[in-house]
Amino acid sequence: MTGVALTQHAREARGTDVSGRSPEELRDLVSTWGAELELAPAETIIEWAAATFGDRFCVTSSMADAVLSHLASRVVPGIDVVFLDTGYHFVETIGTRDAVAATLDVNLITITPTQTVAQQDATEGKDLFRTDPDRCCALRKVAPLVDALAGYDAWATGLRRAETQNRVIAPVIGWDAKKAKVKVSPLARWSDEQVEQYVAEHGVLVNPLVHDGYPSIGCAPCTRRVAPGDDPRSGRWAGTTKTECGIHQ
Questions:
Q1: DSSP class of 223
Q2: In the chain, where do the E strands start and end?
Q3: Residues 6+ apart with CB under 8 A from 130
Q4: What pLDDT was estimated at residue 14?
Q5: Of 36, 79, 152, 236, which has the fewest CB atoms closer than 10 Å, so is most exposed?
Q6: What pLDDT does residue 72 have?
Q7: How crowded is residue 28: how many other Cβ atoms within 10 Å of its Cβ?
Q8: Residue ranges of the Phosphoadenosine phosphosulphate reductase domain (predicted)?
Q9: Residues 186 and 42: beta-carbon distance below 8 Å
Q10: Is 58 in the active site?
C-alpha cells in the first residue's frame, strides 16, 4: 500500500488502538517489511509505521532540528513526538522544543528522569556525568526512554548512517531486542545535503547551536564545539572513548 491510499490509512490509524502484538509478531513485521521499505522515501516509511501501529507509534526527537518531527507531522498530523529532558540540556535545545510544540501539528510529550539533577547528585555523587558518564546516561536517558516507550510498539528516530561509522548499518526498519520494539529510522539513508535541502525548502526549525559549532548536540556538560572538518560527533563526550549514550545500543 503506497501513495495516497497509504497516507489516508495512516491518518485513519491515529486514534486506533492496535495493541496486543507479541514480540514475535513485531519481529515478523520487521522481517516482512524491512527489506521492502529499505529504499522507500521517508514519508512512505512513516506512513507505513503509522498505518501499522496506530497510536502505538511515536517519534522521538533530541531537538537538534525538527526535520523528522516536521516530516511526520505532514504525514500524520497530531503524531506523538517524545522529547527527553535530561535536566542538563542547553537552553537553546529547550527553546527548540518549545518552538516545535508551538508551530508543528504534533503532540509534544516531554519526559524526565525519575530523579532531578539535585537528587541524583545527592544519591550518586555530584557531577555523575564527569565521574561515570555511562551511568549518568543510563539514569537520565536510557531508563526514562524505556519507561516512556512502554505504551508504544514502535518508534521513529532521526538516526542517519551519514552521522557516524557506528550507524552505518542502522536499518530503516529494525528490531530493538532490549526494548522489544520496532525501531524505525526514516532518515537513515539521508545525506547531510538532503537534510540541509529539506530544511531550506520547508523552513524547518534548527537548534541555533548547530550554527554555532555544535553539529551534534547532547547534554551541555558533555558537548563541545567541533572544529570545521572534524567528525560532527567528536564534540560528544570529548576527551573520552564514549561515543553513544546507550539509547541506540
A1: B
A2: 57-60, 79-84, 106-111, 154-156, 173-176, 181-184
A3: 221
A4: 56
A5: 36
A6: 97
A7: 13
A8: 62-224
A9: yes
A10: no
> Measured between alpha carbons, how far is residue 168 from residues 35, 83, 104, 160, 245 in Å?
16, 24, 30, 8, 17
- Which residue is it, cell 496486543? 20
Query: Rounded to 5 degrees, what are φ and ψ at 25?
Result: -65, -40
**DSSP secondary-structure letter at 178?**
T
Sign of the CA dihedral running 226, 230, 236, 240:
negative
In 178-220, which ranges are E strands? 181-184
pLDDT value, residue 238: 74
| CA dist., res. 71 & res. 32, Å (int) | 24
Query: What is the structure's pLDDT at 1?
Result: 38
Q: How far is CA 62 from CA 44, 69, 80, 113, 168, in A?
A: 22, 10, 14, 15, 20
Residues in the chain: 249
Q: Which of 10, 26, 81, 245 is catalytic?
A: 245
pLDDT of 230: 80
User: How many CB atoms sit inside 10 A of residue 210's CB?
Assistant: 17
Q: What is the pLDDT of residue 232?
A: 78
Sign, Cα dihedral of 7, 190, 64, 155: positive
Q: What pLDDT, on the 0 to 100 scale, is given for residue 249? A: 54
Strand positions, DSSP E, 61-100: 79-84
Burial class, 131, CB count within 10 angstroms (exposed 0-12 / middle 13-18 / buried 19+)? exposed
Q: What pLDDT, in 10s, does the model give residues 68-90?
A: 999 999 999 999 999 999 999 99
Task: Report helix, strand or coil for 236.
Answer: strand
Query: What's the confidence (pLDDT) of residue 75?
Result: 96
